[in-house]
Amino acid sequence: MATETAPTPLSTEAVFDLVGPAYEDAFAGLPTQAASIQWILSQLSAAGISPAKTVDIGCGTGKPVCFDLAAAGHDVLGLDISGAMVHAARARVPLARFEKVDIRDFRPGAGTYDVATAYFSLIAGVTQDEIRGVLAQVFGILKPGGLFVWSTVPLDAEKADISWMGKPVTVSSLAPEAAVEAVKAAGFVVEHEAVTKFTPKGAEAGICKPEDVWEETHLFVYAKKPVV
């Protein structure tokens, strides 16, 4: 009897090109994300920073993050490895700018940004060391006092081959305590951390079959770069 072989994992770019704009529908109404955007906006308002220079790493379709920040009058750059996502973002959020680039290849000047965000973008196609490296990279591109919001699916995983919404992909992540410690090790002061649960509407969005969706654990971290 022939044995069934596991499908070859897709590249991160290929996965999100396939998922495309439907990702926005699958994760619509994520309350922890909405709360984090409001934290950023309130912090900027309290500091009198307007327009703030902001960068969203793994911006997807640009909604809600880039859309909300741009609508509030801030200077927004969205980065994504997927050409399909960048194309959708440019159409959905004309007030922001978007570039197709891997964050590991992004080289702005040090201290360029007031705000950086990375929502579930440091998981697919990276190693644990690369996650820590990007956190340090983000610290470097922020101005003193800069804000950082990071969300991830916090698991102790190193180059694990999984099926995510029916798509074979290789992922890495850090367990909750290790993830928070990695943010601190990069130099940040952690202002808030929370672990919650959310079930994406992947089947309703037409991305996959109902059996390909599961309840996800989410970690949200709010952090600041010290002023001195």
UniProtKB/TrEMBL annotation:
It comes from Lasiosphaeria hispida. The keyword Transferase applies. InterPro entries: Methyltransf_25 (IPR041698), SAM-dependent_MTases_sf (IPR029063). SUPFAM superfamilies: S-adenosyl-L-methionine-dependent methyltransferases (SSF53335). Residues 55-146 form the Methyltransferase domain. One of its GO terms (biological process) is methylation. Keywords: Methyltransferase, Transferase. This is S-adenosyl-L-methionine-dependent methyltransferase. GO terms for molecular function: methyltransferase activity. The keyword rRNA-binding does not apply. It comes from the Eukaryota.
